[in-house]
Specification:
The chain is α/β, with parallel strands linked by helices and about 325 residues long. Helices cover about 30% and strands about 25% of the residues. It is built from nine helices and ten strands. It has helices at about 1-5, 10-20, 45-50, 90-100, 105-120, 125-130, 135-140, 215-250, 300-305; strands at about 55, 65-70, 150-155, 165-175, 185-190, 200-205, 255-265, 265-280, 280-285, 290-295. Strands 1, 2, 3, 4, 5, 6, 7, 8, 9 and 10 form a ten-stranded mixed sheet that branches. Helix 2 (about 10-20) runs parallel beside helix 4 (about 90-100) and helix 7 (about 135-140) crosses helix 8. The longest helix has about 30 residues, at about 215-250. The two termini are about 35 Å apart.
Length: about 325
Amino acid sequence: MMRFARRLPRPHLVSACLALCAGVGLSMPWQPAHATDVPVQAGVAASDATAQRVGLRLPAADKVAFRGAVNFDKAGVAGGGAVMYPAPGLVGLLAAVATHAVVSGTMRDLEKERIRTKADQVLAPYQSVLDAYTHQELMQASLAHIKTGSARQIIAQAASPAPGDTVIDSVPLFYLTQDHQALILDNAISIKTAGRVTPYENIIRIVSPERGGQAGPDVWLGDDAGMLKWESARMYAQALDIALADMATAGAAALPFKTVRYNEGAVERMERAQLISESCDYLVLRTLRGNLMAVPRKAEAQAGCGAAATPAG
């Protein structure tokens, strides 16, 4: 499976990942996954909801996927390169989400799997919460954070949209940094909408702000895991907003690439990328691979920005 996936162009990788992980292509009437639990956005009239519906389709898997973040370069594994986490693009998402990191049998891959397993130990204090954290809960909480579109609802995996409806399929994969300071989301997204011959497809990475000196399980899990669930829902919504904005601005003028420094937890990273948009809190970037990232601005940049702003995207 891995060798086959590597030969596919990136759009086909998105489709392959989503077809396996999100159950694309089945036909049933459009309906909310749990209609009583997922109301149409408050303040939108029924006629508007029918005309401008945006459906978030539930993935096939029930549980939200979490892994421990790892840097293969730092671990001394050959072939690490720019691959900072166990999900190098959609091939990694397919492996981690659909097959829990398929190992090809080579010594390099066996060593990487050993490192992944060790990295996942950071999740031990969170496991009881993560085992019960579902895509339904994540996506329902995200509705309050999504800024794009008017009428939104969660739809069943096998839903079939009406003409004019927009359907978003996604495979979210979260990482917790080893210092417990930040969450990282890689969200493989496919958007089908009227007026597009082929779906919009991309991977959106979101890096949460650093939690600060008191970061740890007590912070993330306090108040019935309120911070963990709130931040993951916010990040999921931010990824959708960025994807929808990118789809709407396709064909924009090319921007220069530059080196951007940002923090993943307490660790500084660098990315060669185009600056797509910015706010006081976030920079939205397009990487050399064509994927999109939203990374927190450095503290000094935020201090000089004035009043806090909504994250870009």
